[in-house]
Amino acid sequence: MILKNDNLLGQLIRYTFAGGLAFIVDFGGLYILTEFAHIHYLISAAISFIFGLSVNYFISIKWVFDKRSISNKKIEFFIFGAIGIFGLGMNEFIIWLFTERFQLDLQQPINL
Asked: Considering the domain boundaries, does residue 106 fall inside one?
């Protein structure tokens, strides 16, 4: 197990793990909410993105980074969330573009 410390390589490895786990939560949530809960794909994408963002934030502050550049946790989360909102907008646009304009369905496999 990689312990928490100031080593930049260790932080990079832990951050990659945190991002991978957040991706699994995000993509898995999108699939589950769309396929099984029958929620519209853009709403599912937004909900799952927020879950993935939250997982990434909490793992990052608890395990990845030792030092915080912003001492106020509310402001830190607000900034993290604001960046996440930008990411959510990009995520929603890309999913809409590929689904509506390029007719790629989340339920259909991609044939190359």
From this structure: no
